[in-house]
Design brief:
The complex is a heterodimer of chains A (250) and B (417). Chain A has 250 residues and is α/β, with parallel strands linked by helices. Chain A is 36% helix and 24% strand. In chain A, strand 7, helix 6 and strand 8 form a beta-alpha-beta unit. In chain A, helix 3 packs across helix 4, helix 3 packs parallel to helix 5 and helix 5 packs parallel to helix 6. Chain B has 417 residues and is mainly alpha-helical. Chain B is built from 17 helices and four strands. A two-stranded antiparallel ribbon of chain B has the order 1-2. A two-stranded antiparallel sheet of chain B has the order 3-4. In chain B, helix 2 runs parallel beside helix 7, helix 3 packs antiparallel against helix 4 and helix 11 packs across helix 12. The radius of gyration of chain B is 24 Å and the shape is globular. Classes of the chains: A alpha/beta (250), B mainly alpha (417). Bound molecules: adenosine-5'-diphosphate and magnesium ion. The site of adenosine-5'-diphosphate (ADP) has 10 residues of chain A, from helix 1. Adenosine-5'-diphosphate (ADP) binds next to helix 1 of chain A.
C-alpha cells in the first residue's frame, strides 16, 4: 500500500485536565474523500486544529504524505500541501473578495514576500484568481469588501481561500452549516468540483451531504473514533446507530 | 493618453504643485513650513505602512526617524570633513539604510504578535533608545545634540544648499520619490499580504504566510522610509538632538497619521500637512496650541475615526450620484453649533492659560478684539454657556446629519436596483 496522504497515530489532546482527543488513529489515502461525523463537542474541530498545526498534539504524531508535521507551525504545514477551512467563517474582512482569493494563492505561485512584483501585472495569478471566483460564483462580487458578503457567499469565499493554494490535502470544517437547502446543494457541487483528484477530509452534520460526498466515513465520539468504514457499512453499523446516527437516520 | 493621465495624472500634478508652490508663497516662513511638511509627510506615510497597512500600532516609530537623522548627521560631518565622498543629495539614503538596519532588528523583536503586545514593545523600545541617547553621547551628542554644516563641496545638482529653496527642492524630490515608492509597495505581494495579516493573522498563516516574517519585512521597509525622513531632517535643520527619537515625536507622527486617516493611502499626507500647519501657525497665535491639537485629535477619534481621508472618500459615491446638495444643509446646520461650542471652549482655555501661565494675570486679555479681565465672572459664564449651548445643539444637529445620510444612502441604493 502506498503512503497515506494523511496519517494520525495515537493522537491525543488535553486542555488542562480535560481529555478532548483520546488516541485517534486514522489513515486517509490519496484522492480519498473522507468524512468525519459525530455529535457536537466530540472533538472534530479540535482534530482539525491539531492536523493543521493550530494546536499542538499532547501525544502521538501526524504525518502528511509520509512527513511528520505535528510540531510544525501552521504556515509550514500549509506549504507542505495541506489547507483548511473554518467552521466559523474566517476571511479577510476589509479586503475585497478578489484580493482575498489572490492573497491566498500568492505563496503557492511563488511570489511569497516579494516587494518587487506588482500584483496587477502577475498574469497567471490574476487568471487563476478569476477562475476561482467563477468557480465559487463570486465573480460579480469581486470588488466588494468580504465583510459585506451575505452569509452563504462568505462560506463560498471561505472554501475559495482554502482551495486557492492548490494543496493536495484539504480539510473542510462544516462547510454547509447554516445554509439553506439550495445553498447546500450548490456548496456540495462546488466541493465536488474543487476536490477532484485531491484528498478531502470533511466534517459535516448534514447526512445527505456526507453520504453524497464521502468514500469513507469515520465516526468520532468523545474524542475517539468508534468506526471507520464505507458509507453503506456505516449506515448499517449498530454501534454507530446507537452512538450517533439513531435520531438522524431512523 | 487618457489612461496615462488617469494613472499618472495625480503624480504629475503633485510634481507641478511642488515646483510652483515656493513661487506662489514666497515668504521665508512659508518655505520653512513647506520643508517641514515634506519631511512630516514621508514620516507619516511610513508610519501608515505599519498602522494602516500592517495593523501595527507603534508608539516608538520616531526611533527610526531619529536613528536615520543621527546617522545622516554623522555622515554629513564626514562629507564636510572630506572623508566621505557622498553627494549630499543622497544623504537621506544613509538615514534610510540606518532606519532599515534598526528596523530589521527591532522589527523582528517586536512583531511576534500584533495588538497590545506589539504596542507595548514599541513603547519599550522607544524608551530604551531615548534613554540610551543620553548614555551614548558620542553618537547622540548628549544634551546639545549633533550639528553639521550642509554647505559642502560634494553635490550632484550644483546646489550649494545655502538657500532654503534649494533645501526645499531636495525635500520635495525625496518626498515625491518616497511617496511613490510607498504607494507602489501597496501593490506588491508583500503589501497585499500585509493587509491580510492585519485583517486576520490567524488565517494568513493557513495560506502559507509566516505572519512574523510579513510584519518584520513591512516594519523594516517602513523604518527605511522613516530613516529617509530623518536624513532630510538632518539636512534641513543642521542640528539634531535626542528629542527626535523620543516619545513626543512618536506620538506626533501617530496623531498626524490618524487625523489624516489610516484607511487610505493619501490620508497621512493630509494629516502631515494639516498638523504641521497647525504646529507652525497656531504656535504663533496661542501658547495653548498643543491643547487645541489634543482637542482636535480626541474629536477625530470620537466622531470621525476614519480621519480626513475617510470623510472625503465617504462622499465620493454621493458626489458621483449628484446628491451632495442633500447633505449640505445638515452640514451647515452642524457647523454653527460646532463653532459656538468651539468658541466657548476656546475662551475657557485662553482664560485659564492667561491666569496660570502669563506674566501678569491681572492684565486684560484680548480675544476677538474684545478686552476683558480673565478674573471676570461674566467672561467665565459666557464661555461655559456658549460651550453648553453649542454642545446641546451639536448633538441635535448630529442626528440631523445622520438622517440626511440615511436618506442619501437609501436614494443611492434605490437608484442602483
Ligand atoms: N482551546 C480550547 N480550550 C479548552 N477546551 C477546548 C478548546 N478547544 C476546544 N475545547 C473543547 O473541546 C471539546 C470539543 O470541541 P470541538 O472540537 O469544537 O467539537 P466539535 O467540533 O466536534 O463540535 C469541547 O468540549 C470544547 O469545549
Ligand atoms: Mg466543530
Amino acid at each position: 500500500m502506498s503512503t497515506p496522504a494523511l496519517k494520525l497515530a495515537g493522537v491525543r489532546k488535553n486542555f488542562g485536565s480535560s481529555q478532548i482527543i483520546n488516541g485517534v488513529d486514522l489513515e486517509v489515502s490519496r484522492a480519498e474523500r473522507h468524512a468525519i461525523i459525530g455529535p457536537n463537542g466530540a472533538g472534530k474541530s479540535t482534530l482539525f486544529n491539531l492536523i493543521s498545526g493550530f494546536y499542538q498534539v499532547s501525544a502521538g504524531y501526524i504525518e502528511l504524505g509520509g512527513h511528520i508535521i505535528s510540531g510544525l507551525p501552521p504556515h509550514r504545514i500549509n506549504r507542505l500541501g495541506l489547507s483548511r477551512s473554518f467552521q466559523v467563517t474566517n476571511i479577510f474582512p476589509k479586503m475585497s473578495v478578489f484580493e482575498n482569493i489572490r492573497c491566498a494563492l500568492l505563496w503557492s505561485m511563488g511570489y511569497r514576500y516579494s516587494f518587487w512584483h506588482f500584483c496587477d501585472r502577475l498574469k497567471r495569478v490574476n487568471e487563476k484568481t478569476e477562475q476561482i471566483l467563477e468557480m465559487i460564483h463570486l465573480a460579480d462580487r469581486r470588488h466588494i469588501p468580504a465583510a459585506m458578503l451575505a452569509y452563504a457567499e462568505q462560506r463560498a469565499l471561505e472554501i475559495g481561500i482554502t482551495i486557492a493554494g492548490d494543496t493536495n490535502v484539504i480539510l473542510l470544517d462544516e462547510p454547509t452549516a447554516g445554509m439553506s437547502l439550495s445553498e447546500t446543494e450548490r456548496a456540495v457541487e462546488l466541493i465536488h468540483k474543487v476536490t477532484q483528484d485531491k484528498t478531502l477530509v470533511i466534517v459535516e452534520h448534514d447526512m445527505s451531504v456526507v453520504f453524497n460526498l464521502a468514500d469513507r466515513i469515520s465516526v468520532l465520539v468523545y474524542g475517539e473514533i468508534v468506526a471507520t468504514d464505507t458509507p453503506d457499512n456505516i449506515r448499517q453499523n449498530q454501534e454507530v446507530q446507537e452512538a450517533y446516527l439513531g435520531k438522524e437516520i431512523a | 493618453m487618457l489612461l496615462f493621465m488617469r494613472r499618472y495624472g495625480i503624480w504629475l500634478a503633485a510634481v507641478i504643485v511642488c515646483v510652483v508652490l515656493p513661487y506662489i508663497f514666497t515668504s521665508r516662513l512659508s518655505l520653512t513650513l513647506f520643508c517641514q511638511m515634506g519631511i512630516a509627510l514621508i514620516f507619516a506615510l511610513s508610519y501608515n505602512m505599519l498602522l494602516g497597512q500592517g495593523g501595527m500600532l507603534s508608539f516608538g516609530h520616531a526611533v527610526f526617524y531619529g536613528i536615520g537623522g543621527f546617522l545622516a548627521m554623522h555622515a554629513l560631518n564626514k562629507i564636510s570633513g572630506g572623508t566621505l565622498p557622498l553627494p549630499i543629495e543622497l544623504l537621506p539614503l544613509v538615514g534610510g539604510l540606518g532606519g532599515l538596519a534598526a528596523g530589521i532588528v527591532f522589527g523582528w523583536l517586536s512583531t511576534e504578535r500584533s495588538g497590545t503586545t506589539f504596542a507595548l514593545i514599541s513603547l519599550g523600545i522607544g524608551e530604551l533608545i531615548a534613554a540610551s541617547a543620553l548614555m551614548l553621547p558620542s553618537f547622540f551628542g548628549g544634551e546639545e545634540g549633533i550639528s553639521a554644516n550642509r554647505m559642502v563641496q560634494t553635490t550632484l545638482t550644483g546646489f550649494r544648499f545655502g538657500k532654503q529653496i534649494e533645501v526645499y527642492f531636495l525635500i520635495a524630490f525625496w518626498a515625491i520619490v518616497s511617496a511613490a515608492l510607498m504607494y507602489l509597495h501597496t501593490k506588491t505581494p508583500l503589501g497585499r499580504v500585509a493587509n491580510a495579516v492585519r485583517d486576520n493573522p490567524e488565517r494568513a498563516a493557513f495560506i502559507g504566510y509566516n505572519t512574523r516574517a510579513v510584519r518584520t519585512l513591512q516594519f523594516s521597509l517602513s523604518a527605511f522610509f522613516a530613516g529617509i525622513a530623518g536624513g532630510l531632517f538632518a539636512i534641513n535643520y543642521e542640528i539634531i538632538t535626542a528629542e527626535t527619537v523620543g516619545a513626543l515625536a512618536s506620538g506626533s507622527v501617530l496623531m498626524m497619521t490618524y487625523v489624516g486617516g489610516v484607511g487610505h493611502f493619501f490620508g497621512p499626507i493630509l494629516g502631515a500637512i494639516l498638523v504641521t500647519f497647525m504646529q507652525v501657525s497656531l504656535a504663533g497665535i496661542t501658547h495653548a496650541w498643543l491643547l487645541y491639537f489634543g482637542l482636535l485629535f480626541v474629536g477625530m477619534v470620537l466622531w470621525a475615526p476614519t480621519g480626513m481621508a475617510g470623510i472625503i472618500m465617504m462622499h465620493e459615491p454621493v458626489w458621483k450620484a449628484g446628491l451632495m446638495k442633500r447633505l449640505l444643509p445638515s452640514y451647515l446646520l452642524i457647523a454653527l453649533p460646532s463653532l459656538v461650542m468651539f468658541v466657548g471652549v476656546m475662551i475657557l482655555v485662553e482664560i485659564n492659560y492667561h491666569l496660570s501661565l502669563s506674566i501678569n494675570p491681572e492684565a486684560a486679555l484680548q480675544l476677538f478684539g474684545i478686552r476683558f479681565k480673565a478674573q471676570s465672572p461674566v467672561a467665565w459664564s459666557t464661555a461655559i454657556l456658549l460651550a453648553a449651548i453649542g454642545f446641546v445643539f451639536f448633538r441635535a444637529a448630529k442626528r440631523k446629519v445622520s438622517r440626511s445620510w440615511d436618506e442619501v444612502t437609501q436614494t443611492m441604493k434605490g437608484g442602483a436596483v
